[in-house]
Every structure is written in structure tokens, then in C-alpha cells.
Write a structure and sequence with these properties.
The protein has 187 residues and is α+β, with helices and mostly antiparallel strands. It folds into two domains: 51 residues, no CATH class; 126 residues, Lipocalin (Beta Barrel). The protein contains one helix and ten strands. The chain has an eight-stranded antiparallel barrel with strand order 3-4-5-6-7-8-9-10. The chain has a two-stranded antiparallel ribbon with strand order 1-2.
Amino acid sequence: MSHLLPGAIAILDEREHPKWFKLPARQHMDISKNILFGQHLFVSLFVCGEIILGTTTAYAQTTPAGLWKTIDDESGRPKALVRIHEDNSYFIGRIEKLIDSNNPVTPICKDCTDERRNKPILGMVILRGARTGTDSESTTDGEILDPENGKVYRVRITLGGDGRTLDLRGYVGIPLFGRTQTWLRVD
């Protein structure tokens, strides 16, 4: 029997429930199949949405590999396009195009002190030996060349959260004593 307490909800006795209150076992299975179908449908729609929206291409932007526009940290103007690629877990960056060059003759690296001395800057490898760091958001242990003065610096590379910017911290000794350039992704 149902008992109604003043100001409270009804307490139902299991023996008094109508037949429709309890579902037969077969109906429970039909409901679970419908729920399972709904989950599969949701997953399928989610995957299709990912493909249509193109968010799967964001995976390609979780690495420094790609074409980057270098920005001069003193003038704020674009200087060159550098292509970074991965080779045996190391990142290598090569100058593909000089943007801010008014000189029709390809400049050479007169002040370089290694095998790049007196070589054309266009096509020169300026980033080498960088590899993914322990925090997986930065690369370390590499070196970067400033072709304007021929100096080689240690480098720490950090990819921006959206994958569209790349911060390169060139330093001697420890990163505290260095300077940072921000490059912009072209592709």
C-alpha cells in the first residue's frame, strides 16, 4: 500500500506497482541496444565532424617541422623563410628564401667560423642538432647560426600552443643570458 506522509513524497510498496512499472527482461535488452546504438552514432558523428572541420590537421602542427618566416627581433620585419625538417629525431633548418634583401647578389657568410664560412646564405643550414626536450613542448641541445655576424648559439625552441608560432631562444651558457626570436608558420 502507498503511504502518503504529510508534506512528503509517496512511498511506494513494490507489490502495488502496476505491470508497466517493471520492464520485462526483453525490453531491458532493447533499451540497452538503443543506448549502444546511440553511443556508436555519437562516435561516428564525432569522427565525421573532426574530418569535416579539419581539426585532424592540427596534428601536423605539433612539431617545429615546416616552413617558417623569420622576423628580425630588432626591426620587426620579415627576413627569410626557413624550412625545418626532422632527420633521425633531430631538427634541421635551412634558409629557403631571403625576404628582406635589396641586394641582387646572394649574400655570403663572411663572418662564419666553421664550414659555412664564405658560403651563400641562401640554402645555408642555420639550425641543427635540436631534438625534442623532456617536457615535449620544447626542443633542446641544438645550435643556431646568426648569418649576419657568424656566431653560433645554443638554442631552445618552443612551439606556440596553436602551432603557428615558434620561439627560438639563442644563448651562450644558460638560456637566461640570451635573446628570443619569434618565427611565424607559413605552411
